[in-house]
Amino acid sequence: MSNRPEEDYDPRTILGCLGKAGIADALLGAGSMFAGEAPPEYVIIIGVDSFLDAASIEHFLAQERIRCSINPDGFIPGEAAAAIALTPRQSSGHALWIEGVGTAHEPASPFDEATSLRAMGLTKALRNALQSANWSADDLLFHASAIGGEQWYFKEAALAMDRVMTRKVAYFPHRVAAQSVGEIGAAFGPLILSWIGAEMAPDDLGTRGLLHLGNENGQRAALAIHHR
Question: How far is CA 70 from CA 42, 55, 130, 185, in A?
């Protein structure tokens, strides 16, 4: 990440090329701004990404990673821009609160068969988010992810959540944003927060959950969120 003190931007503006999991760095950076001297009233986080250029399409077709009639285990390329406004101030109405942020690195990769999938990185990120929020797994009612569609990442999520959960529950939904928008990379961070925030309610998803996002470089991010 790097500062971009240009004419049209606040000198604290930061640009980062950090992929899906970069939302954790952005949120931690916003928290530092709010806790510092002369804190802003709001911090806006923007995510922009695209998989719809010729070079990207050719690359992922060559790797047989794009979903099509002969390859159901792939993703649908997309592009998007999404933004959220953050403030530490108490809202007069209902609002989404980010209670905890966790990060970790996953050593396993779907492109490296030498390392078996145990989901230890995502498990650590999820537990770090719970610890940051001072929650236990018993507080959770759902989880949501930015998985693009490939089965390896669904297996990782299932393994990690199984390690994190301390008891079996009859209903514990997993919402997947890519089902509606395809693979949109770095735009997933702010998009999934706004989307899940709009759906959280006591009679639907519930008021407490975990979001998790991962990069192909192994970086994992988890957020503990609370609608209150």
Answer: 47, 21, 40, 24
Topology adopted by domain 1-228: Peroxisomal Thiolase; Chain A, domain 1 (3.40.47)
Residue 223 token pair: 């957020």
3-class SS letters over 94-138: CCEEEEEEEEEECCCECCECCCCCCCHHHHHHHHHHHHHHCCCHH
Predicted local distance difference test score (pLDDT) of residue 138: 93
Q: What is d(CA 200, CA 173) in angstroms, rounded to the nearest whole number?
A: 12
Residue with tokens 């998985």: 147
DSSP secondary-structure letter at 17? -
How is residue 90 annotated by DSSP? P
CA distance 79 to 138: 36
pLDDT over 90, % of the chain: 79
Q: Give tens-digit pLDDT for 25-58.
A: 999 999 999 999 999 999 999 999 999 999 999 9
Neighbours of 69 (CB within 10 A): 5
CA distance 131 to 137: 10
Is the pLDDT confidence value at 6 over 70?
Answer: no
CA-CA-CA-CA torsion for 12, 20, 56, 68, nearest 10 degrees? -150
Helix, coil or strand: residue 206: coil
User: From CA 103, how far away is CA 129, in angstroms rounded?
Assistant: 8
pLDDT band at 198 (very low <50, low <70, confident <90, very high): confident
pTM above threshold 0.85: yes
